[in-house]
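Course assignment 3, question 2. Fill in each field.
Student: A.L.
Task: Predict the tertiary structure for the chain below.
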Amino acid sequence: MKKHFLFQIIVLIMLLCTLVGCNTNNTTSESADTSSNEEKPKVVVVLQSLTSEYWNFVQAGAKQAFKDFNVDGTILGPSSESQVMEQINMMQDALTKGPDALVVSATQPETAIPTFNQYKESDIPVLLINQDVDWDNKVTFIGTDNFTAGKKGGELLASMLQKGDKVALIGGVLGSQTHRDRLDGAKEALVAAGMEVVAEQPADSDKSKAMNVMENIIESNTGLKGVFVSSDDMAMGASRGVQNKGADVQVVGLDGTVESLESVIKDNTVGTVAQNPYDMGYKGVENAIKAIKGDSVEKRIDTGAEVITKENAQERLDFLKSISE
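Answer field:
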C-alpha cells in the first residue's frame, strides 16, 4: 500500500512539473510576441538633398521626431537637387527593406509617381513634405504654399522699387514644381506692381551657377533694379554676382536660411521669405506614425511662410540657432 501511495505521489509531482514547464513556455512565447509588438515603426525620409542648410533643418526636425515617437528612422537624399534619378533609386531601394511609411520631398513629381505607386501597392503610406505632388494616394502634403510664398517675395521686392523698374527671376532645377510655383507667385506680384520682368533663368539650385546667371543677366539688361531668386542658397550666389558686377540690384530670396538672414542683417540682400523646414521634417514623421496606426491625418498641413527684413531677421536667426544646437 505504501509503495502504491508513494508511486501516486511521484506521478502527481511529475504531472505538476510538466504543467509548470508548459506554463513557463507559454510565458516566454507571449513575452516574445509582446516584444515583437513593441518593435519600433520604421519610417524612411527621402529628401531632395542632404548638403544644404535648408535640408539640414528638415533633417533636424525629422530626427527629433524619431526620438519623440520612438521611431526606427532613416534619412536619405542625393548629393544635390539636380540628381533626380539618384533620389528615385534611393526610394526604390528603401522599398525593398519594407518600411512602415515613406516621408518624401520629390525633386521631380512626375518622375516620382511610378515609385509612389509601388509603395501604394505594398500598402505603405506615402506622406509628402516641402514639395506637393498631384497624386491621389498621398496621405498628406506638409509644407509651404509655394505660390503664396513666392508672391510674398515678389511683393517685398516690388516694395523696394519703383513702377516700371526692370526685374529678373532666377529659379531652381527645371521640372521642380516647388521652384515653378515660387516664380509664378513672384512674377504675379511683380507684374501687378508694374515691374517689367526682363529675364527668367534657371540656376539648378546651385550657388555658383546662380552667381554666373546673375552676372549674365546684369550684362544683358542695363538698368536692372531687382531680382527674385526661388531659394536662399541661390540668392546668396546671385548677391555675389551683383557685388562682382558692382551693380545696384536688390535681391530677395526664399527659405529663411541662416546665411540669408545674416546677409539681410549685413544689407547684402533686402529680405527673404522664411519657411519652416524643421516643422516639415518633424510633422512628416509625426503624421507618418498616425498613418501607420490608422489614425486620421489632415490632407493638407500648412507650415507657413514669413516675410523677413532687417527689422525681424535677428529674431529669426536666434530661433534657428536655438533649434540647431
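Instructor remarks: Residues 205 and 253 are 12 Å apart (CA to CA). Confidence is low (pLDDT under 50) at residues 1-37.
Grade: pending
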